Amino acid sequence: MMAKVKVSEGAEAAAFPIGGYAAVRVVLRETEYGTRVDVPRGDPSRPPGWDELAAKFRDCAVGVLSAEAAEHAVAMVEGLDRLADVTGLTETLSAV
Fold it and tell me: In the beta sheet, which residues pair with residue 25?
């Protein structure tokens, strides 16, 4: 498949801080699909929601934390403003 993949840089000049855009075009025998993203998800103007952040954390935590520890960490971060201190959170995140 890699032989069929072509990567090219957009012609437009990049803007600070991230700049540029991402475009994907898939060409099949009789059909073409494409999309372009000017501002990526996670950019300050398109911040991810809580559910997206929690899902990303869970995905990154696989293999490092147990599913139970990851869920416990997510719950603590979601209620961070109500924690007396972060000792329990740091203990959960360092329990490898």
Answer: 34
pTM above 0.70, yes or no: no
54 and 74 Cβ atoms separated by less than 8 Å: yes
Hey, which bits of 15-95 come out as E strands? Answer: 22-27, 32-37
Phi, psi (degrees; rounded to nearest 5) at 94: -100, 5
**Distant-in-sequence, close-in-space partners of 70: CB < 8 Å, separation ≥ 6:** 57, 58, 61, 62
For residue 24, the cross-strand partners are 35
The pLDDT score that the predictor gives to residue 37 is 86
pLDDT tens, residue by residue, 60-69:
999 899 999 9
CA distance 87 to 29: 58
Instruction: Please tell me the distance from the alpha carbon of residue 8 to that of residue 42, in angstroms, as a whole number.
Output: 23
